[in-house]
Every structure is written in structure tokens, then in C-alpha cells.
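Hello,

Our lab assistant flagged a job as stuck in the queue for most of the afternoon. It eventually completed. Since we weren't sure the result was trustworthy after the delay, we are filing this so someone can double-check. Below is the sequence as submitted and the structure that was eventually returned. Let us know if re-running is recommended.
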Amino acid sequence: MLSWLTFGVLMSIGVSGCITSSIITLGTVLGALGSAASTGSDVYKLGKLDAVLYASATDCHRGVIQTAKEMGLMIVTDDHVNPREDVWEMTLHDEKKSPVGIHIERRTAVMSRVRIDVGIFGSEPTTRLFMQQLRINLHLAPPEPNP
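-- returned structure --
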């Protein structure tokens, strides 16, 4: 953040308010990029939503496939990149060809780490909706009531 002393020095040497506001805006944007949003056990940072689920990696993989189909997402790649350690890398596309990356990693026999990556300018609500539906499909969360 720009201190009052720095602001005063910039103004005294003739720096315009336009440049000063650009510096302040840049600082705000960089500060926002460096922060992480967390609700419950999910952490969203720089276009990625990380969660640890109480389910095997194989169950998470099946759940991602089911969730993608329910949400109308096309599975572009589905690679079991490290079968010995149960690691999957998947790429999904919506109708506008926006990519959604999925990383599934076995942590224990009954616990897995899932990362949903929509890119730095991607939609956080999309990642949260996908994770919510994945939890429902894995029977880890109750379904939302219909109004």
C-alpha cells in the first residue's frame, strides 16, 4: 500500500494523480492475487480450488466423470499419470471450450486431494459448484433442497 509519506514525495516532485492512482490500483491487484479465499476445508487461490475429500482416489475419479456429465462438461483428457500412486490429470471443456483442469491425488486409502483449476481469470463460482456437486455424487454432502 502506498504510504502518505510516499504519496507526498510523489506529489511534491510533480507526479500526476493519474500515475499515483495507477500505482495504488496495481498494489491492490497484486495484493488480491496473493490472497487465498477459504470457506470450510476448500481453499481458492489464483484460479485453483483445493480440497481434501474423504473418498478414495478411484471414487473421486468416478465422481468427477459423473459430475462432468451432469454439468454438461466434455472430458477432453483423462490420464492416469501415476497408477502406482493413484494420480489422475483430467481436462474438461464447457460449450465455449473454456478449460477446467482436474488433479486427483491419493493421500491415503480413504482420503484424496482434488484440485480444480480454471486459470487465473477463470470463474471461482464454477469451481465451487463443481466441488459441491462432486461432494453430492460421492455422498459427502446432502443435496441442495429444491425451492
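-- support follow-up --
The delay was a queue issue, not a problem with the job. The result is valid. The chain is about 35% helix and 30% strand. The two ends are 45 Å apart (CA to CA).
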